[in-house]
Amino acid sequence: MLVDHRTGDDAGVYLLQDGLALVQTVDFFTPVVDDPEAFGAIAAANALSDIYAMGARPLTALSIAAIPEKDFPMDWAAAIFRGGLGKLREAGCALLGGHTVRDPEIKFGYAVTGVVEPERMLTNAAGKAGDVVVLTKPLGTGVIATALKAGQAPEEAALASQRSMATLNRIPAAVAQRHGVRTATDITGFGLAGHAAAVARESHLSLELRLADLPLLPAARELAPGFQPSGLKMNRQHFAPLVEDRAAEDEPLRALVYDPQTSGGLLLLVPEAAASALLADLPQARAIGRAVPAGPRAIVLI
Amino acid sequence: MLVDHRTGDDAGVYLLQDGLALVQTVDFFTPVVDDPEAFGAIAAANALSDIYAMGARPLTALSIAAIPEKDFPMDWAAAIFRGGLGKLREAGCALLGGHTVRDPEIKFGYAVTGVVEPERMLTNAAGKAGDVVVLTKPLGTGVIATALKAGQAPEEAALASQRSMATLNRIPAAVAQRHGVRTATDITGFGLAGHAAAVARESHLSLELRLADLPLLPAARELAPGFQPSGLKMNRQHFAPLVEDRAAEDEPLRALVYDPQTSGGLLLLVPEAAASALLADLPQARAIGRAVPAGPRAIVLI
Questions:
Q1: Do B24 and A109 touch (CB under 8 A)?
Q2: Are A16 and B96 within 8 A, CB to CB?
Q3: Which tens digit of pLDDT belongs to each residue from A105-140?
Q4: Which residues of chain B approach chain A closer than 8 Å at the C-beta?
Q5: What is the ipTM of this complex?
Q6: How many angstroms separate the CA of residue A214 from the nearest CA in chain B?
Q7: Contact A96 B62 (CB under 8 A)
Q8: Dmax of chain A from CA atoms?
Q9: To 5 degrees, how large is the angle CA B229–CA B233–CA B234?
Q10: In what order do the strands lie in the sheet with B266-270?
Q11: What is the b/e burial string over A91-101, where b = at least 16 CB atoms within 10 angstroms of the residue's CB?
């Protein structure tokens, strides 16, 4: 076993034989969008994301589903599975089986297995001072989902968020490996602050993040004051002590640093010499900061 | 992919490279016993069972848990995980991670990955007429769990059932492979009749089962008339058309043929010449019948 449930990494890693490791992860959750097919696709992209964040290639998946017995149209269940299967196919990942239970609350997700050569693995621990911090998707899925539940999300924001969550992290992971990146994580429930702090800790660095340069989903900034999910508040309580705040920016942006993401982007630590070529290959990605020698706090907002 | 979600086999199989296949399965369920540590152990033994039923060696597991937020002692949750971990250790299986959600209804289980050389795999499809049908655990866990919920299970029966469900199918699988067995399945939710019918269908055989020789948990026969789980009735409705009933035995025994099992035993089709040596190596196992050329029904009760 190379990485197990006790580390802060994105997935477990098991050395199967010389030069070949299994990478495994499991995630499932309640619907984050209204469209059942999109929900299935997002659940798959989200589960696959941990595999990509380790630099691995997904091979197989097992579905995990909880479907209500009553008042739930069977074609919705079929649409959820269809959305997931389409996304697995896009990833070249085979569905080997699954388990479905009856439950009043819908839940859906996957256990995913990938493979990686151990020396090509992306971890949280290989960053160097001077590395450029890159984020490959915009922030705000938690705030927008909360506004959506309240019927207050503009359609453009809801659709952009749905599209972003359903996008695989496959290409950014492949591009990052091609440019010599060794340090990556995916941004999920702990938000940018929580996941960036884990990378900083494991790499014995601090990360300076430029608030003004954070990529945001449409309307995320406007919705942030009024629609903070409980996870955002918990993240802020938990991670704010790890953050030194020197930024002149306004409060909504600061809140989004803690917004829990579903199927968020990759956070990459990119060797300085490779940064501009990597950014040219990933038009959606943004340079948002820089790794510096470890200071008193893991994260410095500037 | 060798076996996927569309076949009747116990787990999915993915050919990783020449001579090495991954075998994967996922299962989780609500508590079947009162003791949380025993529940965890049973959930692990049950999930591992599909791996053993394919002749594979378990390598890694991911836990899947739903834990109530309110009115649930945290040391119960710890006991469930501890019971599962102990059983994984007994199986030599590494816990790589997991996912836990808050949910009013407790659920627990695992996604498990094993490895097997494809030519050593146990399937449903390799049985021959003349093979001896062997069952490695006694029947009755569904009936006893139903009586337990009603407060009507004798303590001896409840404990024997708990012990049986927590027992790994590792040794029977290894012994079966050593004696040249190629056809096996594990008895779970569809009961003896349902799983035996799948083996009969895939092997193009019928299976004659001797009702009087079925191994039973203590008190299972006495409890069967009064404590039939809904799964038993559904199995009977579904599988009775596949069963030709020539037996002189009484109704309680007949009902137990359809009793859904949790972490049940292996059903083996054993070449006749190997049967007595195999039975000598597996003192808990019983010869319960014989494979015959395919007749009009998959199962014949005699």
A1: no
A2: no
A3: 999 999 999 999 999 999 999 999 999 999 999 999
A4: 1, 3-5, 11-14, 16, 22, 24-29, 59-60, 62-64, 94-99, 101, 103-105, 107, 109, 111, 113, 115
A5: 0.86
A6: 29
A7: no
A8: 58
A9: 110
A10: B183-186, B266-270, B132-135, B286-293, B205-209, B299-301, B243-245
A11: bebbbbbbbeb
Low-confidence ranges of chain A (pLDDT < 50): 5-7
pLDDT tens, position by position, B2-31: 555 444 556 899 999 999 999 999 999 999
Beta-strand pair B57-67/B299-301? unpaired
> How far, in Å, CA of A232 to CA of A255, rounded?
8
pLDDT per position as a tens digit, B166-199: 999 999 999 999 999 999 999 999 999 999 999 9
**Residue whose token pair is 């859904």:** B260
Instruction: Give the three-class secondary structure for A25.
Output: strand
Contact pairs from chain A to chain B, CB under 8 Å: 114
What is the spatial distance between Cα A283 and Cα A277, in angstroms, rounded to a whole number?
Answer: 11
Q: Tens of pLDDT along B195-222?
A: 999 999 999 999 999 999 999 999 999 9
Q: Between chains, do B29 and A101 touch, taking CB under 8 Å as contact?
A: yes
Beta strand ranges found along A152-227 (DSSP E): 183-186, 205-209
Contact B12 A96 (CB under 8 A): yes
- Report the half-sphere exposure of B300 (CA within 13 A, side-chain side): 15
For A45, A104, A115, A248, B197, the CA distances from B208, given in Å and listed in that order, are: 48, 41, 44, 80, 11
Contact A93, A58 (CB under 8 A): yes
Residues of A with CB under 8 A from a CB of B: 1, 3-5, 11-14, 16, 22, 24-29, 59-60, 62-64, 94-99, 101, 103-105, 107, 109, 111, 113, 115
